[in-house]
Amino acid sequence: MSIRAHHWQDIYAKSDESQVSWYRPHLDTSLRLIDGLKLPADSSFIDVGAGRSTLVDDLLARGFRDITALDVSAAALAQARRRLGLSGDLVRWMNYDLFDAKLPAGRYDLWHDRAVFHFLVNEKEQAGYAELAAQCVRGGGHLLIATFAPDGPERCSNMTVRRYDAASLAARFAPAFEPVAEEREQHRTPMGSVQPFTYLLLRRVGSEADSELEFDPDRDFEPNDYIE
To answer: Which of 4, 92, 113, 156 is most buried per CB count within 10 Å?
Structure first.
């Protein structure tokens, strides 16, 4: 197990929802931005760093069925799956570090990330993340990302974070993505403190090169790419 996986596995194994600062009963800002896209029911979603977030619950409640939840912590995914009961069978659960996951190119209509990217303080990892998102989101698809705002915390879960405003965040994903909408959220933690977040919705810019990245339904995930 990597250092990163061990860190997050330990946090989720030893805490319940009300004991972690990032908990929200529903990801209201994300859901509002997603609802605004008016995506068809067969749209494909991936929630990167899903943890035990209720986003998957709310997407299922909206009628979406092509949902992947990826997280480095097996404990977090197991807790989310237990919460969903039988509905959890409709979700593809992937227990991987993002950089080790085998994600198909050109598959996703929406890539969601609340509070993963800001933990990547290394320039190489930031560039790798942006490249992976560009490979996996189809032309015309969207990337919805949330990080701590410039006046947000400098550390979280004993780790240093990188803070962004909308412009600096958009620059990280240019030119493959262009900004569509931005929001600022004042997240109140279960402990009562306030954490400012920057939310940015970006659209994948299509090009002739994207034809090489279109999702092939006959070459989907290998059976061992996700946990049952």
So the answer is: 113
Strands of the chain (E only): list them: 44-48, 66-71, 91-95, 108-114, 137-148, 155-156, 159-160, 177-188, 194-204
**Is residue 203 a part of any domain in this protein?**
yes
Report the 10 Å Cβ neighbour count for 24: 18
Quote the Cα angle for 32-101-114, to 5°. 25
Task: Give the CATH number for residue 165.
Answer: 3.40.50.150
Domain that holds residue 125: 3-213
| Residue-wise burial string across 141-177, b where 16 or more C-beta atoms lie within 10 A, e elsewhere | bbbbbbbbbeebeeebeeeebbbbebeebbebbeebb
Query: Is residue 222 assigned to a domain?
Result: no
Q: Could you read off the pLDDT of 57-111 as tens digits, one per residue?
A: 999 999 999 999 999 999 999 999 999 999 999 999 999 999 999 999 999 999 9
